[in-house]
Amino acid sequence: MNRKKILLFIICITILTRVYHITFPLIGWQSWRQTDTASIAKNFFQNGYNIFYPQIEWRGNTAGYVESEFHIYPFIVSLLYGIFGMDEMWGRIVSLIFSVLTVYGLYLLVRKIISENTALWSAFIYAILPLNIYFTRAFMPESMMLMCSVYGIYFYNEWIENDRWKNFTLSLLFIALAVLIKLPALYLGLPLLYLTINKFGKSFLTNPKIWLYSILVFVPAILWYYHSHQLYDQTGLTFGIWNAGKDKWGMIEPLLTIKFYNDIFFKSIAERHLTYAGFIVFIWGLFLKRQHPKEKLFDWWLISVVVFIFIAPQANTAQEYYQLPLNVPAAVFIGKIFSEYFSFGSLKASFVKNKFASVFLSLCLTGIIVLSFLRMGNFMKSENYNAPVFKFIEDIHSNIPKEDLVVTVTEGNPTILYLSERRGWASNPDDISDKFINDMREKGGKYIISEKNMFHTEKQNEVLQNLLKNYEVVENTDDYIIIKIN
Description:
- This protein is mainly alpha-helical.
- The chain has helices at residues 3-16, 31-47, 72-84, 89-113, 116-128, 130-135, 142-162, 165-181, 189-200, 208-235, 258-273, 275-286, 297-311, 313-318, 327-341, 347-353, 355-380, 388-399, 415-420, 434-442, 458-470; strands spanning 405-409, 424-427, 445-451, 472-476, 480-484.
- A five-stranded mixed β-sheet has the order 2-1-3-5-4, with helices on both faces.
């Protein structure tokens, strides 16, 4: 079969698996992160395209500037809003485009370092893994960060091979962007260091271009995160980037439990990211002999992501998308096994050569496809046009003036604020008390709005009943409440 036709088929698979519900509103699984990103894009569009001052909706009575990563992804989406009008579909389309570019970039990198057949298999596997599909069609920056990572390493390898400034500049641009978009992308330093040592040995320490590259990667990140922290000093709003030992990273306790390793390496990576069928082939691929020293790039890439998981155990436990970078080298290890036993050019001959392995891998490939389809179906269940949240949003629009500040009881989730086009606070049910309500009133809050399923415990249910008894009830349905507090 023609190589270009196979690659085109893989690109088509990448697109087709990600266009489902591309116009759907931002509700359902992972709506929290998506609506945070979408609100920043919306505020860029509505408030003047100032990329240095990202604003969110859970701003209370502040200007809404938030300490966070560099938001070039929502900025790109906001530019499309200016051309085509505001529609979340454009965020998903941008993610889809970056996912296609990632698949193609992975193909280029693996072809360069290993082989054409392995490159095609790696690109195909990467394209069909379930969480890759979901998160690279979501309104989130992960797709762009992964694309920058792959091309950053690809052009770095090209630079150390031919010493062209064009490749140096492109690699620098992509790696610097990856770190700006997601600070954990600093883990890319490990595979880059391996390529450097493999090429230059110890002499890299005296190579001025290596030092220039390193400085130019860090300087934009240092400048941005310094500026971003000034925004936090101004508004008190943050995505919790620097909460060492408290929220995302620097915590030892999770690493001392069996639950952490089960949740991360089996429930998340084996079951959700790679599927159990893919995980079996991945483990097999780890033991396959490396044919060339540079092939160990993918070993170090994999190790670097695992190191990040241990540095940020709480973040990885809370959110599966933190493990997405692992899927890049994992797809290569899986692709190496399929390439070893299946040639795209002569599949029939491959079966004759080794029937047992061919049958087993055929079952594994079928398992990856079927389990990915089932997993995606499970993710999509919450993207339902009959969801009560749509009626909730209608009632908010009908009963609350757009300029009024609201308090949402959502455990910090900004989805209701974003969908209802309101601003205010995202609070927890345990926060709600008469004192809290008085504080919110003094800051300009006029309504408390919440879905009832936020009140889980008996104590929280007492809080709900107190709201309904002592404050003006605007709406009280089986699913949600709207309470006037001023």
